[in-house]
Design a protein that fits this description.
It is built from 15 helices and no strands. It is mainly α and 350 residues long. The chain has a domain of 162 residues. Helix 4 runs antiparallel to helix 8, helix 10 runs antiparallel to helix 13 and helix 12 runs antiparallel to helix 13. The longest helix is centred in the middle third of the chain and has 42 residues.
Length: 350
């Protein structure tokens, strides 16, 4: 069976998507420190060139700049951990002050259960009483699993240290030997691919900048909505809390929920249900606005159609998890760059 010419570009595109997904998956799984090394080396290149103009050798300038960056990162991590430790210590010292409040809430909870029990059939109450031990066991298991989760994360700390060391070394060598690495690739690859790969490199650079710009825009929008909502509700430290929630919006897994959810639960437990609803409304508006604007903002900054950007984000999240929020559009951009450079034939010829 001979494939018609008009279907060949579509076949090439499908194969390219599969290959790009496999390559990105394997790279993220096994070579992530080196990927970050390339990105960091690329980001510090303007500083390295500036240092070279000051007659500082690339070997030394790359090392000095990277040491400064990683020292700052480690300082921020240590400062954050120490701050969290101090705050937890304060929390432990003030917990006894909330004993009476907790005791009162527990009494209210028992009274509410008693009032509700009047309207519950006797069979249901008997079932609940007979299975109360199972409920306690479930809660105990949940707490135990939570602590196991925390301990497992602590076990990962040595792995994180190794990851940072390899990322630092990769960044340094990629930055120091940039020209040698590029010359090696040029010798290995056919001459006909040099220009195409240069075009892909330029397009990926512009797309990377566009992706960062898109995330900054989304964070600014989320921050503005949060601050405005806090000011409307006359929340104490509205500006500071809004900025913190906005910065947390960078985190793909937790985001501002690290602030909102515990706050909402605390308000409900302390009886401020109406205020908890207002805070929940702000949280839902922030999350909803981000989800609505995400595809449009990312697509416009990457030069992708909003529908294509939405599909890329969805498929990226389904395949890679939360990292797919960035990797999905990135794969789409790589394929587009390959089409523009001629490595992949276009679907239609103009």
């Amino acid at each position: 069976m001979v494939l018609k010419n008009e279907y060949k570009p579509l076949l090439y595109l499908g194969i390219s998507i599969i290959i790009a997904t496999i390559i990105v998956t394997l790279t993220i799984r096994y070579l992530l420190p080196f990927v970050f090394g390339v990105i960091i080396a690329f980001l510090i290149e303007p500083l390295v060139k500036f240092a070279e103009r000051l007659n500082i050798k690339r070997t030394y300038s790359s090392l000095i700049i990277l040491l400064g960056i990683f020292t700052l990162i480690i300082y921020i991590i240590i400062l954050s951990i120490s701050r969290i430790t101090v705050e937890l210590g304060k929390l432990v010292t003030i917990l006894p002050n909330y004993y009476n409040l907790i005791y009162e809430l527990w009494n209210k909870f028992n009274l509410a259960l008693y009032n509700i029990s009047k309207y519950i059939p006797k069979e249901t109450l008997d079932y609940l009483n007979n299975n109360w031990d199972q409920v306690i066991s479930y809660v105990s298991t949940y707490i135990s699993n939570f602590y196991s989760f925390l301990l497992n994360k602590l076990v990962l700390i040595p792995g994180v240290i190794v990851f940072l060391i390899f990322t630092f070394l990769a960044s340094y060598f990629f930055s120091k030997d940039k020209q040698k690495i590029l010359d090696t690739f040029k010798r290995i690859l056919p001459t006909s691919l040099h220009k195409k790969l240069e075009n892909i490199q330029i397009e990926l650079f512009l797309s990377f900048i566009g992706l960062i710009k898109a995330q900054i825009i989304l964070v600014i929008i989320s921050t503005a909505i949060t601050i405005a909502g806090f000011y409307i509700l006359k929340v104490d430290y509205a500006l500071t809390l809004g900025l913190i929630c906005g910065l947390l919006d960078i985190l793909p897994l937790f985001g501002p929920s690290l602030i909102f959810i515990p706050w909402i639960l605390y308000l409900i437990l302390t009886g401020s249900v109406s205020f908890a609803v207002y805070i929940l409304t702000i949280y839902l508006v922030v999350i909803g606005t981000r989800q609505i604007l995400q595809a449009k903002v990312i697509g416009s900054n990457l030069g992708l159609d909003p529908t294509l950007a939405l599909i890329a984000i969805y498929l990226g999240i389904k395949i890679f998890g939360f990292l797919g929020l960035f990797l999905g559009p990135l794969i789409a951009v790589i394929i587009r760059a390959a089409v523009h450079s001629g490595l992949i034939p276009p679907l239609s010829k103009k």
